[in-house]
Amino acid sequence: MKEQLYTIPVNEAFARDCECPVCAMYHKLKEDALDFTLGPSYMEDDIRMVTDKVGFCREHVKELYDKQNRLGLALMLKTHADKTIRDVAKLTKGYKPVKPGLFKKADPEGNPLLNYLGEVERSCFVCNKINAVFDRYIATIFFLYEKESDFRNMTDNCKGFCTEHYALLLKEAPKQLSGKYMEDFINALHKSYIRGMERVRDDLSWFIDKFDYRFADEPWKNSRDSLQRMMMKQNSLGYFPDQEKK
Question: I need a labelling partner for 144 at 20 to 30 A (CA). Which of 46, 152, 189, 230 fits?
């Protein structure tokens, strides 16, 4: 299959022996975004202008902290704080609390300061960088499914998807596919999700049984990492590359 640049990461993710190829794609994008954020880019004026404005969400600022480039993160947080302080100082001058009327509740949406604080809390440089590419990756899944038989086979026979990305693909399929391809994709998606959940559920059941003294001498089979894999399946709680079977 002749690959174009945007198809490569999608093909690589679906070729991996992992519990959710969409999680694998997202994880790679996130790691690249975190590394980019704390690489030489944080000294570039155009990047700093963006990070000064949008800052970072709770999840990603912790992950940036864990990357150990404390100086880089400190510089970005300091200048973001500078901008936030300036903006809030201006908005507090005209701040008026919105009181509920006799027949209606207060409307915080109409308050410029509360609107600004809500935007600051929700915005994230790393999220924006991930989502700009992730949406194209999802579209590429459907493009490849329609155009490439090899990719259809990989999709139909993969180990399934986490619940979040199963729902995402179900939602996007009617927008991206039609006719037989849409019907085949959705049917394969249902089967893949249920088959994968049942497989990990059965491994988790044996993992639980192994704590019973009656099964202490029995082999672990495929259950040792079943708890992590079920976390991936049910909650998309992180990606565990060490769980891949080489």
Answer: 230
Within the chain, where are the H helices? 8-15, 21-37, 45-54, 58-66, 70-93, 112-122, 125-147, 149-156, 163-176, 179-209, 226-235
Residues spanned by the domain of 230: 5-243
DSSP 124: -
Contact predicate 73/65, CB 8 Å = yes
46-56 burial string, b = 16+ CB within 10 Å, else e? ebbeebbebbb
pLDDT value at position 239?
Answer: 56
Single-letter code of the amino acid located at 190: H
How many domains does one find in the chain? Answer: 1
Quote the CA–CA distance of 170 and 163 in Å, as a whole number: 11
Whole-Å CA distances, 149 to 78, 140, 145: 51, 14, 7
Measured CA to CA in angstroms, residue 38 lies from 53, 55, 98, 144, 203 at distances of 17, 13, 40, 33, 39
What lies within 8 Å, CB to CB, of 201 at 6+ separation is 230
Cβ–Cβ < 8 Å for 26, 115: no
Pair 51, 80: CB distance under 8 Å: yes
Which pLDDT value is given to residue 109? 60
* pLDDT per position as a tens digit, 192-230: 999 999 999 999 999 999 999 999 999 999 999 999 999
Name the token pair of 224. Answer: 């040792």
